[in-house]
């Protein structure tokens, strides 16, 4: 079973609604465009060539609009329809109206044929609990209201029955909820297809802090998010990498393992971004990540090395240099910790940055570097180190699960 989370760049929903404010309405009981509402209902009064006069139902105002600015409205029985592929008139206004009407009633999932559309609720809804999981288990799509669990369960049932690999593609704009929904799909499989677990595995897991296979699959997320996510203007916890998660099942339909492939992480020094984020408690997050490391079976030595590399990178971001003539020099505020943490001699490291030795023919000469060149070197080195830490984490997480 494959879960591919793509970080697609699309227009956010508000912008789509905004763009339609130019005047898209429905015919007959039409929705008229409106600055606040995007679409409002309007009734056709008269037609003159391409010009149509409509009465907006809520405001009781008449407006004359172009025929092309109107979109046909569905009969009332289609209000809050669960599968939009069944609409008589499948147009943009109807789709947005339906999604909004459902969203106002806390119904965040809606089908459109084979697709399941999720609108981010930005609050915790009680729709992912164990009892909800139990309700969806083994049920046909048409028996239950739209839900991600239904899509996951259908994929699972098809895999068990047809013995064929199945894939779920989770895509959307930044902040749409891809990461959250990916986690829910994994959680669903972890619950409905938990491995039976060999006794010896359970015993050895109990002896260390290492968790069960399902826990490890779930706990891979806090670790990868800690290193692969960052705050952006759109999302406080934005994944800076795409992921391809493969969950392996045994012949009995139970989870047998998982692995993850990631696409390049984007990275900027933390000191160039926001250091505190309202919705994030760093101490709690650090604790959760440390526990996840334990569940994944990382040794104390491995954890320590990982933290040391991270701290060294953070300190590198604090290093400052000044320019004297053509030559860069440390400006006295250079953080010694980065070298200590990375177990590198401080003087050698600074020298290799400001006056690196290069081979010219058979001779080795020291080359002067400007401040900008040194800053670029540090940036490149930190990115490369961070990338290696992240790739090591992914490899290590895969090794465990
Ligand atoms: N189903 C949901 N229930 C509750 N909150 C949600 C849900 N989906 C998303 N959110 C909230 O929205 C935030 C952004 O969602 P998420 O990180 O999943 O977006 P994303 O599509 O993965 O974004 P990016 O591409 O930037 O990584 C989450 O941190 C969470 O607060």
Automatic annotation (TrEMBL):
GO aspect biological process, one term: actin filament organization
Keyword annotations from UniProtKB, A to Z: Actin-binding, ATP-binding, Coiled coil, Motor protein, Myosin, Nucleotide-binding
Record-linked PROSITE patterns: MYOSIN_MOTOR (PS51456), SH3_LIKE (PS51844)
Classification via InterPro entries: Kinesin_motor_dom_sf (IPR036961), Myosin_head_motor_dom-like (IPR001609), Myosin_S1_N (IPR008989), P-loop_NTPase (IPR027417), SH3_Myosin (IPR004009)
Residues of the Myosin N-terminal SH3-like domain: 25-75
All copies of domain Myosin motor, residue ranges: 79-401
GO cellular component, one term: membrane
Positions contributing to ATP binding: 172-179
A Pfam family recorded for this sequence: Myosin_N
GO MF annotation: an example: actin filament binding
Entry similarity comment: Belongs to the TRAFAC class myosin-kinesin ATPase superfamily. Myosin family.
PANTHER family named among the record's database cross-references: MYOSIN (PTHR13140), MYOSIN-11 (PTHR13140:SF857)
Name of the featured protein: Uncharacterized protein
Organism: Mytilus edulis (Blue mussel)
